[in-house]
Amino acid sequence: MPTPSDQPTPTAPSWRVRGGQIALDRPVVVGILNVTPDSFSDGGRFASVDAAAAHAGRMIADGADVIDVGGESTRPQGASPVSAAEELRRVIPVVRELRVRFPDVTLSVDTSKGDVADAAIDAGVRIINDVSGFRLDPRMREIASRSGAGVVLMHSRGTVEEMGTYSHARYGADVVGEVVSELAEALRTAVDAGVRQDQVVVDPGIGFAKRSRHSLEILASLRRFSALGCPLMVGVSRKRFIGELSGVSRGSERVAGTVGAKVAAFVLGARLFRVHDVAPNRQALDVAWAVLHPQRS
Of the residues 239, 240, 254, 282, which is catalytic? Predict the structure, then answer.
């Protein structure tokens, strides 16, 4: 049996999203659905509505609790920003189709644009996942407050073009403290604008404006994020630092490394996990949960 110090950091029992709640008593798997031509490991594969819906169906069958639809890449090679009109063209038809095919599945929109978040909520999305932590479009705070959507505030620095690079990966002696402090400010401004704290999940933004050593230090210190008082999401799927550690150059082949990082993050307190490869991560997290909670298995 694990000792008390081995147990994951306690977290909120549920996450308030638009129209309901998501229980956090077990690991929550968020399936990534990129409907972009240029995402770093699967760009262009799911750009059509039918291809996107079919992939979402596979992820749901494999155990995804949430499908996160994104129409703008933040790839590490330096992304090219797209207009709100183009992002809406990519995202909204997919959201509408998913709502029809999978009416009981919770949908999230991965965007930093208020216009896209607003339209996606109208189309059936229940969560706003903003990689800029509401930095790039302050209207997001009002939209989240008004709609009651769940919110993921992710740590990043710089613009869409810069945040996946090392342009702003400059930290002092306590990288974790800086990231926690910047997320605390994002949370404060959201709450001041009327967003309820129980609507908010925080994400340390692994790989965003962070070198590999920064990402590793943050993952090793996830318990420090409990000071924010919000559940924690971790997104390390196929990331560059996993390739550097494992020697695997192709993103799509970094599944085993991703699973290892996800299980470590779960043990250290994360409860939501954003992944490309749902089945292996779902299985690994369920087994890890059972080992840590044998009396509830």
Answer: 239
